[in-house]
């Protein structure tokens, strides 16, 4: 994968968290994902198609997911229910949608979000599609983004 | 002012309803996709303003927009696209189809106020 394709997703994540949640996040060093390993507890996944195929997944520990959705809604959310899955899906949707404007050459379309909930679930992609993992840190906790993208 | 908010995310509708309430818009009706939006619009006319998401199941925002603009009964309804679709080509497509304005998520309450023209 051309690693420059990952930068718009990183920038979009920083901007989305700042504008939507008033949370400053710092990206870590991206690394290649060589085998499926357990991630966090909640993942928002967006499929990408068009001039490239793949997906982005943004994964949060349960505690951070609850905190973020509580912040979004302005009320405390304590249970992993539809508020959390809907909120995490919307965060993933906004990050993917905003990143697209910097990937104009690829003419990408994004899918509706899917959200997976389960402790230490594993995200697997097709072996032919390379995946980069980007760790993020914030005062509220850590999370990760996986960008899988195969260009023509 | 009566505003129709169309977005498949219940979370986003709740956030936007709070922002709209803070802007003094109390009468907000909702729909979860374009098809539902057409029904809610027909049942609640006159509607002054529609905030419209793009990517939704069943019927997406651009299809809804084109259908509304084909109907002369709705010629005075202002429509503001409110979406994460951020490319210039998408903005132009929506404006060409009859959107009055376009705002990219996430946005601040100040930006929303400006784009809604209120």
What does this structure look like?
Chain A has helices spanning 7-21, 62-73, 82-100; strands at residues 25-27, 31-32, 42-49, 52-60, 109-110, 114-117, 131-138, 141-151. Chain A starts with 6 loop residues before the first helix and ends with a strand. Helix content of chain A is 30%, strand content 31%. The mean pLDDT of chain A is 92. Chain B has helices spanning 10-22, 34-43, 61-69, 88-97, 109-116; strands at 2-6, 27-31, 49-52, 78-83, 101-104. The chains are: A alpha+beta (152), B alpha/beta (118). Chains A and B meet through helix 1, helix 2 and helix 3 of A and helix 1 of B.
Range of helix content of chain B = 40-55%
Number of strands of chain B: 5
The count of DSSP E runs of length 2 or more, i.e. the number of strands of chain A, is: 8
Return residue spans of chain A where pLDDT drops below 50 for at least 5 consecutive residues: none
User: What is the N-to-C order of secondary-structure elements of chain A (H for helix, E for strand)?
Assistant: HEEEEHHEEEE
* Coarse shape of chain A: globular
Strand residue percentage of chain A: 25-35%
Mean pLDDT of chain B: 94
What labels would you give this structure?
heterodimer, A: 152 residues, alpha+beta, eight-stranded antiparallel beta sheet, 3 helices, B: 118 residues, alpha/beta, five-stranded parallel beta sheet
Concise synopsis of the structure shown:
Chain A is an alpha+beta fold.
Topology:
The complex is a heterodimer of chains A (152) and B (118).
Chain A lengths: L6 H15 L3 E3 L3 E2 L9 E8 L2 E9 L1 H12 L8 H19 L8 E2 L3 E4 L13 E8 L2 E11 L1
Antiparallel strand pairs in A: 1-7, 2-7, 3-4, 3-5, 3-6, 4-8, 7-8
Chain B lengths: L1 E5 L3 H13 L4 E5 L2 H10 L5 E4 L8 H9 L8 E6 L4 H10 L3 E4 L4 H8 L2
Helix pairs in contact in B: 2-3
């Amino acid at each position: 994968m051309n690693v420059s394709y990952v930068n718009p997703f990183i920038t979009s994540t920083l901007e989305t968290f700042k504008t939507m949640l008033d949370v400053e996040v710092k990206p870590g060093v991206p690394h290649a994902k060589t085998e499926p390993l357990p991630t966090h507890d909640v993942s928002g996944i967006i499929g990408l198609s068009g001039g490239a195929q793949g997906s982005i997944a943004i994964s949060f520990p349960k505690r951070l997911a609850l905190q973020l959705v509580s912040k979004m809604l302005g009320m405390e959310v304590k249970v992993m229910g539809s508020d959390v899955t809907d909120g995490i899906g919307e965060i993933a949707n906004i990050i993917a949608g905003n990143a697209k404007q910097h990937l104009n050459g690829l003419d990408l379309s994004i899918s509706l979000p899917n959200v997976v909930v389960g402790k230490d679930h594993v995200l697997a992609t097709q072996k032919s599609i390379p995946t980069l993992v980007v760790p993020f840190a914030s005062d509220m906790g850590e999370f990760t983004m996986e960008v899988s993208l195969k260009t023509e | 002012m009566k505003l129709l908010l169309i977005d498949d995310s219940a979370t986003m509708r709740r956030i936007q309803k709070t922002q709209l309430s803070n802007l003094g818009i109390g009468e907000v009706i909702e729909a979860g996709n374009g098809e539902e939006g057409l029904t809610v619009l027909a049942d609640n006319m006159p509607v002054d303003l529609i905030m419209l998401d793009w990517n939704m199941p069943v019927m997406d925002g651009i299809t809804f927009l084109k259908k509304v603009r084909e109907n002369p009964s709705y010629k005075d309804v202002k429509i503001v696209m409110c979406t994460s679709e951020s490319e210039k080509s998408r903005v132009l497509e929506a404006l060409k189809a009859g959107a009055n304005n376009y705002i990219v998520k996430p946005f601040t309450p100040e930006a929303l106020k400006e784009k809604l023209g209120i």
